[in-house]
Design a protein that fits this description.
By secondary structure, the protein is of the alpha+beta class. Helix content is 40%, strand content 23%. A nine-stranded mixed beta sheet has the order 6-5-4-7-8-14-11-10-9.
């Protein structure tokens, strides 16, 4: 037997009372029946009934001097509110990870206590943990993130002590120890996870400033991956392992071309981690003859992308049928260097990429054709200057450069002074485009790998792009 709380409404109000209930078995299964209605009872009375119903002995002498805790508590959920709700799991996990990586002890060694009110090592931990949990600016950390986490309790720093100035100064304290931190992380992560550093992936991205950045000599206007050519920027070169684990980064001026950073980044990584027998993997934006010579002179192995213009040297190989299938929709082919060097070129052909490029060519072809027809019609309607028409044609082809080679144009001046536009399509360009759509090429000095292995190693560059996003 047990007691159960029951409810009933009387005069528009909800009343609670208690009943003694018995469970028993029947042929159709277990059933329950009310033995007695007990009415309203306090906690002491309910406990006594419960103990009597279950056969427990009442220890009257013991209970005479000890208050019995109630077994049921009624809670009005409409009057409950949660106060000072903070995030605990993420900050706690981040702090534990930093301790396992040895970062906490290393920061204490690199940034010993001084006259500052809060140790720089603790401020550095706050920066790292907040970046891990919710990447944002120092101002956002100070005004929104820190006070809503349990970091104040975990680190013993009150929220009113955290401001953006103190966080920025902590970054200034960390900067001189950048190389030491990167070397420590590389060794520690390699030990914990058995990471291999035989393949190094290198890529460059950019980030822009919305202010003038007058105090930053690296802030320059250049090619913006964020499509913000109106803002100054810096370039960030990142080196990661084949699994995407960062090994180090360097900052460059915002107007530097990607290919000019290769010599510096290769020298920095080799000085920091040793030369060993590593393979450098880079995209076609890094290709220049100087960089190829640099890699060859140091007997470094490499796999790099090539400009699309080099495909014309391998037109016969593209047209042949002896391709090796990596998986459905992707084929590769090993080719010898046209100049007889020890380099190997890997032709790659993707069906998905072919469809994409074909659609782009068709779209740009239609845009140019429609634009040329409009310019041609305007020449017939009114007297136009030949130079003005030539500028319009050049602007149209420049805006649709993907299919500009398909059209050959000529602007002449007639006897009446009117400009005349003549144009036609170059079928040889169309034939080459149809043959090379979906194709791209890699070059390497590794001769003991298959085409499939070389392609897979090159495709690991997506790990570097993912690391940028992280």
């Amino acid at each position: 037997m047990f007691i159960r709380q029951c409810y009933r409404r009387k005069n528009g109000k909800r009343h609670a009372y208690w009943a003694l209930v018995e469970s028993y078995r029947t042929e159709r299964g277990p059933r329950q029946r009310i033995v007695s209605y007990l009415g309203e009872m306090d906690a002491q009375g309910r406990l006594g009934i419960q103990q009597a119903a279950t056969g427990q002995q009442m220890q009257y002498q013991h209970q005479l001097f000890n208050e019995v805790a109630p077994r049921w508590v009624e809670v009005d959920t409409g009057r409950i509110r949660v106060e000072r709700c903070v995030d605990f799991g993420g900050p706690w996990l981040g702090l534990e990870l930093l301790r396992h990586l040895g970062i906490e002890s290393l920061l204490k060694q690199l940034l010993p206590p001084g006259r500052e009110e809060i140790e720089w090592s603790l401020m550095s931990l706050i920066l790292v943990i907040c970046r891990l949990c919710e990447p944002s600016s120092e101002l956002h950390i100070a005004e929104h993130i820190y006070g809503h986490t349990a970091l104040g309790d975990l680190l013993g720093i009150a929220p009113d002590k955290i401001n953006d100035d103190r966080l920025y100064r902590a970054m200034d304290q960390l900067l001189p120890h950048k190389e030491t931190l990167e070397v420590h992380l590389k060794d520690r992560l390699g030990t914990l996870f058995g990471l291999e550093y035989d393949i190094l992936l290198y890529d460059v991205t950019s980030t822009y400033f919305e202010g003038q950045a007058k105090g930053n000599s690296l802030a320059q206007r250049g090619y913006s991956r964020d499509h913000r050519g109106d803002c100054k920027q810096v370039c960030i070169g990142l080196v990661v392992s084949k699994c995407g684990m960062p090994l180090g980064y360097e900052l460059f001026a915002g107007n530097r071309h990607d290919s000019t950073t290769v010599e510096e980044i290769v020298g920095t990584m080799e000085r920091r981690y040793g030369k060993a027998d590593r393979i450098w993997v880079m995209d076609r934006g890094m290709v220049s003859q100087e960089n190829i010579d640099l890699l060859k002179e140091g007997e470094r192995r490499y796999i790099i992308g090539t400009p699309k213009s080099m495909l014309r040297n391998f037109a016969a190989q593209i047209a042949s049928d002896d391709w090796d299938t990596v998986h459905e929709g992707l084929e590769v082919k090993r080719c010898q260097s046209p100049d007889g060097s020890d380099e190997t070129f890997i032709l790659c052909r993707s069906q998905d990429r072919r469809k994409k490029e074909q659609a782009m060519h068709e779209r740009f072809e239609k845009r140019i054709e429609d634009g040329l027809k409009k310019i041609e019609a305007s020449c017939c309607k009114r007297k136009c200057d030949a130079i003005t028409i030539a500028k319009r044609v050049g602007r149209l082809l420049g805006q649709n450069s993907r299919a500009a080679g398909l059209f050959e144009t000529d602007v002449t001046k007639g006897a009446d002074g009117r400009a005349k536009l003549l144009w036609h399509k170059v079928e040889a360009w169309r034939n080459w485009a149809a043959l090379s759509e979906g194709c791209y090429m890699l070059r390497t000095n590794i001769n003991d790998w298959s085409g499939e292995e070389l392609w897979k190693a090159y495709m690991q560059l997506t790990e570097a792009e993912a690391a940028f996003s992280i």
